[in-house]
Amino acid sequence: MVCAVILLLNFGYQTMEMPFCILKGSSVHDVGDSALHFTFYQRIEICKLRQGEHLILGFSIGGGIDQDPGQNPFSEDKSDKGIYVTRVTPGGPAEVAGLMMGDKVMQVNGWDMTMVTHDQARKRLTKKNEDIVRLLVTRKSLEQAVRHSMM
Amino acid sequence: MFCRTQTTRATIARGSALEMEIRRGKFRRSVFLDTLQDSDIQKKIDHEIRMRDGACKLLAACSQRDQALEAAKSLLTCNTRIMAYMSELQRMKEAQVMQRVARRSDGTRSSDAGPMDDRLPCKGKVAISDLRIPLMWKDTEYFKNKGELHRCAVFCLLQVGGEIHDTDMVMVDRTLTDICFDNTIVFSEASPGFELRVELYSCCSEEDYSAGSAPRKLASKLSSSLGRSAGKKLRVAMDPGACSPTSNAGAATLLLPGPAVAGPKYHLLAHTSLSLSHVQDSFRTHDLSISGNEECSYWVPLYGSVCCRLAAQPHCMTQQMMSGCLKVKQLGGDPQSWTNVYGVLKGTNLFCYHRQEDMEANVEPAFTIAINKETRIRASEKDPHSKAQSICISNQYGGEEVTHTLSADSREETHRWMEAFWQQFCDMSQWKQCCDDLMKIELPSPRKPALVTSKQGSLYHEIVIDTSDDISTVTDILTQRMQELELRSQLGTSPPWMSLFEESPGGPPTPRLARHIPRSPHRLPHSPLSSLRCPWPGLLSSDASLTSDSDSPCSTSPCSRLRGWAEPLSLSSPRFRPRTLSLDAKLSTLRGRGYGGVLQCSCQPPSSSSLAPIPAECVPQATLSCSSSTSSNSSSEGSHSPSSLDGTPFSRPSSARRSLRNLRAKLDPRNWLQSQV
């Protein structure tokens, strides 16, 4: 039974990780049928772009535990209060790094983003002393992509 | 060799070598038949072992705390299941051996079925739901604000016989007053004498799980890793009792205990046992036996009880126990008034339909005879009028006794009906209160979205800002006036008080602002203003971003540019103080709505810059970035959200559009805000 598949590829100076999957145990309700779910993550490294006094990443986020999750157009589960990428500026640092609209941001530089307010999330992304942010994101299409590649 | 009465339905092919061997007496058939039941359990054990291996690998591989906790929970559940199956296997082997010994001693094959008058009650479904365990924090702990939150991960393990289920994991910290498990767990084959064991496991979620922990700590963790009750079971299972078959015993020693993995370990915190007497159609509180004390790392202060709803549905209440054609006559009626019905015995009633098709079509039965604790049934002697035996059913309907007489087609039918009634009475006496009324059991749908309780958010976030106060009416009036004025100003006139809302062009930007606001138009690299038909006066103010404190007018050179083709857009100062709802704050926000650099009318696609030139059409929608409103200290934050629109045209409401609705929208926590980073 496959447990954790992590593929690490080195492209020149940039280390890009292929999406990997983690087995997550789930509680069992049906007799005899224990399903372990796959959740696919991707690590994305964004180098902030300096524009005058500002460091920008080039995307917009929505969501947060203080927001109404029912209005999130990207989440599958309408009670998901996580942080989602709502827009990616074309040509911006986020797009270059591979971030896509609809991604759910799970971590930023090691900080958890699944249980934060909207403002906390924004702050964690816009710290002035950080030039690079490393995001851990997940998206539905990743699962399909990996499944396809495994077949 | 085919034997239809064998319940295990094992058959051995005629003419096969095995059959020949059996005929020659070299093997007893029982050896092969019994192993089939074993193989079921063996398969289950193998499945659980695979699951356990998977969980172990996951535990070793994962880095996140909550994944590790989930994996450890799965590991514990798998281990418990394995041990339950192993002990069941053990019991079966012992029973087989006893049987063989008995057979050998009397040399005859014992009958397969028990004596006929030993009636077994039917089985049923038992469901436990809405588990809630109250906690009892000490005052000092509850209000302690310093220090990190001591958190524990807890979950419940529920066991009836061989069926073991676990609930979801819940993180407990001192802000929680109860541990609630939302799962509904259904055990499908429980006998009336069932014992539902509820065990609460907890694990401290702050320990360092690295392998480099002190040997003593590790040793103590490993020794208590399986929990007390599990450890006891382990010892029992490992005990080489009556002869166990070699292969399985060998396997047992290899399996248990499981591989020792570094990682979070759950400990038994409390347990209790529930049985039929606790079954009720409503919530009840039961006592918990707590193991562990305050010194343990996994300690959670429990109040000592558990509330839950324990319901049971015996099969006799939900399934048809007997059906067939009958003739029914009410006593006291015309001796010839027999009615032909199709009777169905289900639950506490005998439903009589005119025809069998009616029952299948769910048509209402012609009449219903109650069969409950107060019913008396007796088989009467041969009725002089008809030759067959008949059954009399007497009920008390409000003081009045009503007797129905049933007659079946043949003696065998009558006998079968009597059997069915006897079985029903046996079931009802065993299941007691469960047979009074059918208890509802709601099966959880597989992917029910979990109801998110706002445990994380504070009450503050729940408060909708009440806008029905005087200030809003004033500002409403003002905005209405502004709207009128827009139209009017398109004709060129503007009343004197409009200047209140207008920043004089060229107003001196404060030094502070100058630092933050890049004024040069090159900030808009790809967004030639010409492409924007909807002017964005707020553009520049957006540069002022989140600094709610910066209330100086922004540079207005672009403003003047905009001015050329949008007269009404009068302002754009990032004056912005959403901290208070005072009148001047509102007015100043009206004056200069700094959008904080991030505005998005999400309802309108970015490409729709083809808004009507009349800004009046552009109604701001709910989603505005409001980082400033939620963080008045954003000015201290490093890089402010920069704002630049990067060439993607947004539809932005004009300045004059900045009605109070914007402010309300911004402050209303019900909107789904978006921020640009």
TrEMBL record, chain A:
Keywords: Acetylation, Cell membrane, Cytoplasm, Membrane, Nucleus, Phosphoprotein, Wnt signaling pathway. One of its GO terms (cellular component) is basolateral plasma membrane. Its main location: membrane. One of its GO terms (biological process) is cell-cell adhesion. SUPFAM superfamilies: PDZ domain-like. PROSITE patterns: PDZ. Residues 43-140 form the PDZ domain. It is a peripheral membrane protein. It comes from the Eukaryota. One of its GO terms (molecular function) is protein kinase binding. It is found in: Cell membrane; Cytoplasm; Nucleus. PANTHER family: DISCS LARGE (PTHR23119), PDZ DOMAIN-CONTAINING PROTEIN (PTHR23119:SF50). This is Tax1-binding protein 3.
